[in-house]
Design goal:
Keywords: Redox-active center, Signal. Pfam families: AhpC-TSA. With 181 residues, the protein is an alpha/beta fold. It contains five helices and eight strands. Helices cover 36% and strands 25% of the residues. The longest helix is centred in the N-terminal third of the chain and has 19 residues, at 2-20.
Length: 181
């Protein structure tokens, strides 16, 4: 009986962590059709961000040859809230080299509600609140878990996709690789 219990207690965590692991999705390049797609995402500050997808390029208009970090998140996700603080630090550290954009994947949130939530994090990057965010996510191959980050080089070429909470050190290693290119 003790052996059976011990075996079950040993196997269950292994199965749990194996099932929750999304390594197969980690660096999967987004699938973008050859037809160009344009997305105009409304920001919480009543402006717009223009993103175009064409073949293997993800271009954010007016980024002036900067690295782009697209963060897909929700307001109810605890890991997303932790990541907001990390992204504030990344934007501050690399403010001359990177553009961070938070893309809210949530319906029925007013800009005022989002601004109120983000005040406590001293967010220093652009955040969108737009129904087109769902279409953008779908066009990038879908978002299987949140938060999800896409890191894009200065030329609009996909570099890395991260699913789940990402340590700042990991992001910084990849950002430094892009800066050295």
């Amino acid at each position: 009986m003790k052996f059976k219990t011990l075996a079950i207690l040993t196997i269950l965590p292994i199965l749990f962590f194996t099932a929750c692991d999304s390594k197969s999705d980690k660096n999967q390049k987004p699938t973008i059709n050859s037809a160009e797609k344009q997305f105009n995402l409304n920001t919480i500050n009543n402006s717009q961000i223009n993103i175009s997808l064409n073949q293997d390029k993800i271009i954010l208009k007016d980024t002036n040859d900067k690295i782009v970090l697209l963060n897909f998140f929700t307001t109810w996700c605890p890991a997303c809230k932790v990541e907001i603080s990390n992204l504030v630090q990344i934007q501050e550290t690399y403010k001359n080299d990177i553009v961070v954009v938070g893309i809210l994947l949530e319906e029925f949130k007013t800009n005022e509600e989002i601004i109120e939530l983000l005040k406590s994090y001293n967010v220093n990057y652009t955040v969108t609140n737009s129904s087109e965010a769902f279409d953008l996510a779908k066009s990038l191959g879908g978002i299987k878990a949140i938060p999800t980050i896409f890191l894009i080089d200065k030329h609009g070429t996909f570099f890395q996709k991260y699913t789940g909470l990402v340590p700042n050190e990991m992001l910084e290693v990849d950002i430094k690789k892009l800066l050295e290119r």
